[in-house]
Amino acid sequence: MLYSLRMKILSIDLASKRYDHFGWALLELGASTPQFPTADQLGLSDPPDAITFASAVQQFCTAEDVHVLMLDGPQAWRYPGSPIDQMRLCERALNTPGKTGVPGVVKPRTYHAFIHFSIEVFNALRHMGWSLLEESFFQDPVERLVIECFPSCCWRTLGLKKLPAKGRLKTSELEPFRRSLAEVSGYALPQGLTHDELQAAVALPVGEALARRERESLVLAGVDPIIEGDIVYEGWIPLPKIV
């Protein structure tokens, strides 16, 4: 079962080139003050490697009693038999900027390294005992759940103005987004959070709803993952909503 009195939720805004481009947000279920660990605290150093990263996250989650893990990146490829062309159903529904086609195919090409890194991380964690989200989860919760999230869309489903892309925003312009997220979520968010940390924090309500199995607090985009051999296809992207 997922539940323990001190279980935690970890949200990671992924990157693939440098660890200082990652964002981390850790929250104890029932608490209101997230923590913001860093890659250094997990003993990680550049360049990011999917297996090394997954192993470090696994050790951290075991030590911190994390049972719900969210990663901002694709978990799977497009199913070859899907009627949706060139991308997964969840990506079509949410208009994600990166598209995962059949295995090995990524659009646009600038997302190639990131998407391959993300899928490799999900696969490594799955082999370490983490389960992917399925619709049946709400009736039969699992011990440890790893979820694909899409922070840019989380802002909108929480009724907030979307956080612009990092390159389009000065550090000094992040404060209104921190305040609005703190107001809606009830989280005590410290000043000075980075763009990546805010993107990690905005997905935390998804993890809380999943930990409590509150299906009514989520919007689910996609379909159940399809696992064939060592390849995973499709999958869900859950989003928070105000109820």
Category from helices, strands and their pairing: alpha/beta
Q: Span from first to last CA?
A: 25 Å
Mean pLDDT across residues: 94
Low-confidence regions = none
Tally of alpha and pi helices: 7
Helical content class: 25-40%
Q: How many strands appear in the DSSP assignment?
A: 11
Major beta sheet, strand line-up: 2-1-3-7-6
What does this structure look like?
With 243 residues, the protein is an alpha/beta fold. 29% of the residues lie in helices and 18% in strands. The protein is built from 7 helices and 11 strands. It has helices at 50-64, 89-94, 112-127, 151-157, 175-185, 195-202, 204-211; strands at residues 8-13, 23-28, 66-71, 99-100, 106-107, 131-132, 145-148, 218-222, 226-228, 231-233, 236-240. The strands form 4 sheets. A 5-stranded mixed β-sheet has the order 2-1-3-7-6, sandwiched between helices. The chain has a two-stranded antiparallel sheet with strand order 4-5. The two termini are 25 Å apart.
